[in-house]
Amino acid sequence: MSRPRLIVIAVVAVLLALAPAVLGNFGVSLLNDIGIGALVALGLVLLTGVGGATSFGQAAFVGIAAYATAWLTTVHHYSPWIGLLFALLLTGVAALAIGLLTLRLGGHFLPLSTIAWGLSIAMLFGNIEALGSHTGMSKIPALSLFGVSLVDPRAMYYLIWVVVGLAVLFCHNVLQSRSGRAIRSLRGGGILLASVGADAFRVRLALFVLAALLAGVAGWLYAYTNRFVSPSPFDVRASIEYLLMAVAGGLGQLTGALVGAAVVMVMKNALQDLLPLFTQRGGELQAVGFAILFLLLLHYARAGLMGFVVRWTHGRFAPKASSAPPDAPALAHRQLPARGTRVLAVRNAVKRFGGLVAVNDVSFDVAAGEIVGLIGPNGAGKSTMFNLLTGTAPMTSGGVEFLGEDVSGLPQRVIARRGMARTFQHVKLRPHMTLLDNVALGAHGRTGAGMLSAGLRMDRKEEAQIQAEAWRQLDRIGLASRAHELAGSLPLGTQRILEIARALAADPVLLVLDEPAAGLRRKEKQELGELLRKLRAEGVTILIVEHDMDFVMKLVDRLVVMNFGSKLTEGEPASVRANPDVQAAYLGGAVAVPAPRVDEPRKAVAGAGA
Ligand SMILES: Nc1ncnc2c1ncn2[C@@H]1O[C@H](COP(=O)(O)OP(=O)(O)OP(=O)(O)O)[C@@H](O)[C@H]1O
C-alpha cells in the first residue's frame, strides 16, 4: 500500500478512535448511525457500483436481520451472538431465494423487482403479530462483549466502527481477487465471463448475497444500538436513502460508502433541525431536499464525492502496483493432445435466425497442432459458426465434438473450462481494469478461490500463481511493461492482442480467434503471426477467422471457406486460392483470374452483392 494512503487511513482511524472522547452523546449516536448506514452502503457500492445491479430493497435485509435477532433474544432469550448467526443465516437464505427468482431479470425489471420485494418484506414486518405488528419489538437486551456491557452508545460505537473497518478490508480483499475480477467484469456481460469459464449468474448471486449479509450485519448492530425495532426504518424509503449514500459517496469506491453515509446522515439531521424553524411541513420538505440532492449528484457528480477525491489526487493514493511478477509456482498445465489427433469436429451444424439460415449444414474437423482458417465474405456465417462451436449460441441442429466428447448443448463456460478459449470480433475487455487484471481474468476457470477465502486473504498462494501467469502471458505478447495501464487506453488493434493473452491465460487446447489482425499495423501483424506460429509449435491448436487474406494465407495449414452460410470448400491455402468457386464468392464472379492476394474482401463482396 502507498505511504500517503497508509497515512490517510491511520489519521482517519485515530480520529475515529478519539471521537467519543470529544463528542457529546448526540455526536456519538450520529456516528453510530453513520457506521451502520456505511455497512449497507458498502454492499450497494459492490452490488450497484461495481456489479451494475441496482437494488431499491436493501433496507429489507437490514430489517430481516434486526427482527430475527430481536425475536430470538427477546422472545426466546438466546444470546445475541446466536442472534447474529441466526440473523445472518436468515438474511443469506432470503437473499439467495430472492436472488434466484429475480437476478435473471434484465434491464429495468431487476430494479423494479427490488422495489416489489422491498415493499412486501417491510409490510410483512408490520403484519406479523409475533413481531409486534406496527408497534415493533422493544426491550432488546444490551450486548456484552467479554463481560463488558455495550449498553452505552459509546461502547457500541467501538464495536460498530471495528466491524465497519473489517467489512471494508474484507470487501477490498474480495475486489482484488479472482472473484473480484469476475465481479468487476459483470458489466462486460455474461458471454465475456462464460468465455473464461465463469458463470455470470452465480457471480451476481454471490455478490447479491454478500451485499445482503453486509446489510444483515448492519441490521444486527441496529437492533442492539436502538434496542427497539419497528417496520418503518426498513421500508423502501430507507432503501432509497442507503442508495443515496452509495451514490453520494461514489459508487466506484469502497470508501465512498463511508463518506456517503456521513454526508446523508449529517444532512438528514441538519434538515431535521433547520426545516422546523421555517415551516411546519419539515418532514415533507426533507424528502424534497433529498430528491434535489439526488438530482444534483446525477447531473454533476456521478462518481460521487470520492470520485472528486480520486480525480484530485490523480490516483496518487492508489495502492502501489508491483512492477514485477510474483515469485510463485506455475498453475497446473493441461496435457495437450498428440499432434494430429482430432481436437474439434463440427457435424452438420445448422443455425437459423427466424427465416435466415446463417449456418447451413456445415461440417469440418480441426486436428491438434494445426492452424485452421475459417474464411468467407461478409455475412458468410463465420462468427455465427464460432458462436456455435464455442457454445456461445445454441445450434438449431447438428453437433460439435471437442476432445472426443460431444459438447453440443453444453454451456459456453463448461466448454471453455475443457480447454477452448476464444477472442471476440467486437473486443470484450474491461476498459477500466488494468491489462494485468484483464489477462488474470482469463485464468478464472483454472482456479477456484471463492469470495470468503479471498475476503480473509486465504487465497494468497493461488492469487500469486494467477498474477504470475498473467505476467507471463503479457510478456508473451510484449505488453508486460504496460501491465498496470488501463485496457481502455490501448488502441483497438492492441486490445485484440490483449484478448489473445487473456485466452492464453486459460491454458487452452484450442484457441478460437475472431479477426485478431483487424486494426493491426503491418509490424504488429507480423508479430501476431510469429506468436501464433510459436503457439502452434508448442502444440496449441488454433482456429481463426480473418479477413486479411495475405495474413491468413501465410499463416494457416488449412482453410475452410464459407459462403452464404454453407461450406464452399476446404483445403490447403494454395488449392483454396486457386479454386474458382472461392474467387467467385469473394469477387462475385466478376473477375475470373486467380487472385494471389485479396486484401480487402469486404469491399470486393460489397461490390459483388450490389
Ligand atoms: N443474432 C442474430 N440475429 C439475426 N441474424 C443474425 C444474427 N447474427 C448473425 N446474423 C446474420 O447471420 C448471417 C451471418 O452472420 P455472421 O456474423 O456469422 O457472418 P460473418 O461471416 O461472421 O460476417 P463478417 O465477416 O461480416 O463478420 C448474417 O446475415 C447476419 O446478419
TrEMBL record:
GO MF annotation terms: ATP binding; ATP hydrolysis activity; branched-chain amino acid transmembrane transporter activity
Keyword terms: ATP-binding, Cell membrane, Membrane, Nucleotide-binding, Transmembrane, Transmembrane helix, Transport
Lineage, highest ranks first: Bacteria, Pseudomonadati, Pseudomonadota, Betaproteobacteria, Burkholderiales
Membrane topology: Multi-pass membrane protein
Domain called ABC transporter: residue spans: 344-589
Domain of life: Bacteria
Family annotation (SMART domains): AAA
GO cellular component terms attached to this protein's record: plasma membrane
Protein name: Branched-chain amino acid ABC transporter ATP-binding protein/permease
Main location as per UniProt: membrane
Annotated signal sequence range: none
Organism: Ramlibacter agri
